[in-house]
Amino acid sequence: MGFFKQKKHQPVQEKVIREDKMPPHRSTASLEKNIQYLQQELRNSTDLKIRLLPGNKQALVYLDDITDPDKIQRYIFEPLLKTEGDITKIKDREESKDLNEAVSSLLEGKALYLIEGQSTCYFFNVQQNVTRAITEPMNEKVIKGSHDGFNEDIKQNINLIRRRIQHRSLTIKKQTVGDYTESEIALIYVEGVVNPDVVKELETRVKNISNDALLSAGAFSEYIEDRTYSIFPQFLSTERPDKTVAQLMEGRIAILFANNPTCLIAPVTFFAFYQSPDDYNTRWLVATYIRLIRLFSFILAITLPSFYIAVVGFHFEVIPEDLISPVLGAIRDIAYPPIIEAVMMVVVIELIRESGIRLPSPIGSTIGIVGGLVIGDAIVTAGLVSNLMVIVIALTSLASFVVPSNEMSDSLRLLTFPLIILSSILGFIGIAFGLLMVLIHLCRMESLGLSYFTPIQFRDLKDTVIRVPQFLMKRRPEQLQSPRPYKSNELSDDDGKK
Amino acid sequence: MAKSDTNPKITLSQLSYIFIQSQVGVDILNLSTVLHKEVGADGWISLLIGGAISIVFVLMMVHINKCYPGEGLFDVLRSSFGKTLGNVAGFGYYVYFLVVAIYLLTSYGELINQWLLPETPIMVLYLLLLISALYTISGGLTVIAKVFTFFAVILFVISVLFLFGFVEAKFIYLLPIGQASLSAYIEGIRVTIYSLSSYVLLLLFLPYTQGSIKQKTKTLIGTNLIVIFFYLYTVIVSYAHFGSDQIEHVSQPVLYMLRTADSVIITRIDIFVLSLWTVFAMTAFAAYLYGAERAFAQIPKSKKKMLNIYTASIIVLAVSFWGGLNEENIRSIIDFQDVITEYFTIYIPILLFLLSFLRRKDKKKEAAQ
């Protein structure tokens, strides 16, 4: 068969060396040569500023756009005046004789001080910090509870976490990923609470990422998740520090990204996507009620359209007698089969949703209302879709938005399609098989090697389907196999008996 | 060869859920009719006696497991019968598991064909059930345990739905007691034991379960009691609902009972129960298919797990399709099953139990230490 086998053309490409792994390049005593090397390495970028000081014996080199002129004045020139030009007397400086290190420090926002006749370079940190104010994340609002959120500055984000867990065992491990971007990521966990095997697993996975650029948390999660082909999200992403800290204290790991407000949390269970910080801030009975509503909405979101299609198409006898004539009246004059109706309506809702996101908020909400009302009304009067189907699909998408996690709600909306198709072929049996497959799939899934969907057992019930009062939740979730299974030093069991 | 497996561990509760799910198959829907045919109104008494005997069998299984620590069904067969005979018996179990799987598949297909989807090609149903079972099995023991545990909720839901049967129940139908002859009782007990016969599968799961022998014994007895009471519950509900005259002529009394029940929100609860029953059909089928896969792994020296499953499932699918809705072919499958069930669920387990006193390995090990 060698005849058919074509040799794959392997493109030639140069290997990119990460900045922190550059081989050293010794600096020379000549100021001009050093500057030339820097210019050449930084590709003669125009933002590379070289300021020759009076006498042309010393030069200050920095990247104009990422340094703060104020800091240059305060940290370099003012002390220089005081020490009468002797750079070695200034504190807060770093020294090196490696020009490649100098390049990477320039890229980090440091200023470089070079002297004619000396091969030592001096660095000063004059980085300009551009940060957004701490605001509540738009997509995860709560009624009660703290209203701060992560922003793009990883230092500030770690600050928000450190302030909440003031203990020495809070561990922060920083790493960089991406050969060009060198994006900084931070793995955060509480030592002694987290399962060390899981940390090891995550670290090896992160180490194996090889990529030029790592730009978003979503892309990152695709590199390290257990099942890339699954429809369900395997990392809980949040922009809320309080949620992150709660998960850290359960024994999970948080991953923060530089220049990204999203924090990924792993390992997670399916039920974590249905928990909101609100639940722990309200009366437990109310929280339980809301949890149950969410669970109901989960079932509704994936089965309601298919249930309706199955009833109309296969099992009309399920409808109680008094309802038969209104239902029949609604669907009698519709030209299309229910599955076409359903798909049409789902697509309309998705269109309205998607256009609402992209448009600026004042117009977005208007489009939502106008689109919803006008199209919804017109599509029924035109006889394309029955008004029952409009109710069904509207309820379904409402239910899918109840999920506190955005990704999970997207997954749910996608899941309705296979169920719609199955139910239009096999009726209730189709739905049964569809749900069976989904549940088996959930049972098979793992998050960082720990099970993703633990079947509901009595002990797990306490903080999943319902929420019991705090004093009854004495154990950490079984799934995590935490080395500290109890939440307090008192080793009393759940019902208070010793 | 089972020793080369990486020992996957399942917990005690998972073991009990596996046991429940592998027992509750499609049979229960017409268990009441069959029992009534054999024993008359005393059917539920023979069910209780049969249940008690099945507990004895469960205890025997635990004892065998204790005597051959860490050995699965096929190693136990080899240890007790010798290599050649043991392999023959292993092959016999392979055939037996396949036949039960085929029976479960065809009876599910027939049930759905009769009640819900008369027009749908039966092959579609077979394929769907097979795919979901394969999807479960291919994940290994831990996934099987998790899936089975999760679906145990359905048993609870269905038990609640059966309460509708009590609305028009007359308990006088259960009387008089003790009218049937002894041979009728024995026949009824036999039917009961067959419908509880998945204790044979226990030897596949017991070596991989955490916990001491005492804990396992307790769990399994409790589980078996739950299943027996669930059977008893269905039988009594349908007896009390229909009475002796009607029940003879109804093939799935439980479903008919729910069909007539009226609820406010939905009518025809039977359709829902039937759809939910898909779960039991799948789990029981998956359990036996898993047994067949394990058995097949012993025959040729193939270590490719999925290949074993595919071979098993192709055989199952082919025979089921041949049987399909054809009365005659199905009859011959069931007859064949009846013949071999007796050997593999009653005689061989008893033989294994007796041999275990002679050939036990746990005492030897202790002596060696």
From TrEMBL, chain A:
Positions of region (Disordered): 1-25, 478-498
Residue intervals passing through the bilayer: 253-274, 295-314, 373-403, 415-440
Primary location class: membrane
Gene Ontology CC, one term: plasma membrane
Bias-annotated ranges (Basic residues): 1-10
Biased composition (Basic and acidic residues): 11-23
Name of a matching Pfam family: GerA
Top-level taxon in the UniProt lineage: Bacteria
Membrane topology classification: Multi-pass membrane protein
Alphabetized UniProt keyword annotations: Membrane, Transmembrane, Transmembrane helix
Biological processes annotated in GO: spore germination
Localisation per UniProt entry: Cell membrane; Membrane
Family: Belongs to the GerABKA family.
PANTHER family: LEUCINE ZIPPER PROTEIN 4, SPORE GERMINATION PROTEIN
Name the record gives this protein: Spore germination protein KA
Organism whose genome encodes this protein: Terribacillus halophilus
Lineage per the UniProt record: Bacteria, Bacillati, Bacillota, Bacilli, Bacillales
TrEMBL record, chain B:
Organism: Terribacillus halophilus
Topology of the protein relative to the lipid bilayer: Multi-pass membrane protein
Official protein name in the record: Spore germination protein (Amino acid permease)
Record-linked Pfam families: Spore_permease
UniProt-listed PANTHER family: SPORE GERMINATION PROTEIN A2 (PTHR34975:SF2)
Ranges that cross the membrane: 44-64, 85-105, 125-144, 151-176, 188-208, 220-242, 265-291, 307-325, 340-358
Family: Belongs to the amino acid-polyamine-organocation (APC) superfamily. Spore germination protein (SGP) (TC 2.A.3.9) family.
UniProt keywords, alphabetically: Germination, Membrane, Transmembrane, Transmembrane helix, Transport
Recorded GO CC terms: membrane
Subcellular compartments: Membrane
GO BP, one annotated term: spore germination
Keyword Membrane in record: yes
